[in-house]
Amino acid sequence: MTAVDTADVDDGHKPAAPTRPFSAFEWMIAGRYLRSRRRETFISVIAGFSFAGIMLGVATLIIVMAVMNGFRTELLSKILGINGHMLVQPIDSPLTDYDIVAPKLETVPEVVAAIPFVEGQALVSGPAGNLGALVRGVHESDLRRIPLVAQNILEGGSLDGFSEGDGVAIGSRMAQQLGITVGDNVTIISPRGSVTPMGVTPRLKAYPVIAIFEIGMSEYDATFVFMPLEESQAYFNMDTKATGIEVYVVDPDDVGVMKPAVEAAAERPTFVTDWRQRNVTFFSALEVERNVMFIILFLIVLVAALNIISGMIMLVKDKGKDIAILRTMGASRGAVMRIFLITGASIGCVGTLAGFVLGLIVCLNIESIRQFVSWMTTTELFSPELYFLSKLPAEIDSGETITVLVMALVLSLLATVYPAWRAARLDPVEALRYE
Description:
Layout (H helix, E strand, L loop, with lengths): L2 H10 L11 H11 L6 H43 L2 E5 L7 H8 L5 E16 L2 E10 L1 H4 L3 H4 L2 E3 L12 E4 H7 L6 E12 L2 E15 L4 H4 L2 E5 H7 L8 E6 L5 H12 L3 E5 H4 L1 H39 L1 H9 L4 H32 L1 H12 L6 H4 L10 H27 L3 H5 L3
Parallel strand pairs: 3-8, 5-7
Antiparallel strand pairs: 1-9, 1-10, 2-3, 2-6, 2-9, 4-7, 5-8, 6-7
InterPro entries: ABC3_permease_C, Lipoprotein-release_system, LolCE_TM, MacB_PCD
Keywords: Cell membrane, Lipoprotein, Membrane, Transmembrane, Transmembrane helix, Transport
Subcellular location: Cell membrane
């Protein structure tokens, strides 16, 4: 054989240069596998369901976690906005020096306000019925420092003259259920009345309604009655005493650190409780529900990832001849594996992105969607009596959203690894034996 012939033979058997990882060739083949042809309709349907599952799972996770966050934030702002972050109560002796103690508490750094109050339970009566109520007596200046009340007056205009008269401010739902408006009288009945030789007689007195407020939390709007402090002391036989002092701070999460400073600033025996101790059962239940919902909805994404596995295995079975031809043309096992990795990961990545966009759109328009669905079904989809709040809240947490997206992407990639490995291990000879 001549040198020329030898060169020809060598050139004819020279192996093709391997393609670089994730080259345009691999993306092109993966794209062709994603596009449906008539005889591959069933596989495309499975891929479509996998895409829809990932999209809906991610969107549902984002929406539910945002609503749960919104619930917690709204409830926390309503509960702490009217009850304070810390409650200072007297020990050993009655709190008759509240006008001295409150200014001392306000000298503590990070304390916004210290509001003395008198509190008692009573029965309120109006033309349309009777309700149990929590009557709270405060100074007019202190009531103005509670934004949830002072900035949400629906009727009555303002709180001017609140401390000068004997009028009361009530919630909107209480006014609605009692059938009264500003200017009407509401009768307050307390079982702890005057002591007579015949026993204790209930105390009954009518008060004009000078303001109607709406906090936005149905339980509070149907329960709270605000009364001037001096009038509440006389009504509940408190003389010159106060029930306690509500302390408001800049950051509610710092109450544990600030508690010793507040106790020291009072300069008298006191018992200080913070909002976490007073609402531990409620917020613990809310946190447990939130975690359980995350686990349940995570399973939706997991099922969608399993759909990717089944769809990709069927695609590998269907493309056995194509894989064998690619191998005989010089494609390496790594190239085949990357082709199917791109195919499966594309479903997961695009589905995750679509789910994120869908979840974001729903969260930003959650209240409008609720109203529309309620209108379509002629039902009250989000009853304030059951869920405490008047509107459906949604608060997107960037950290949680990123966690959901990363989790969905990782599951999608892991679901693609085994089918891609199976495709790379396919023997071209066996695949073409009966073709």
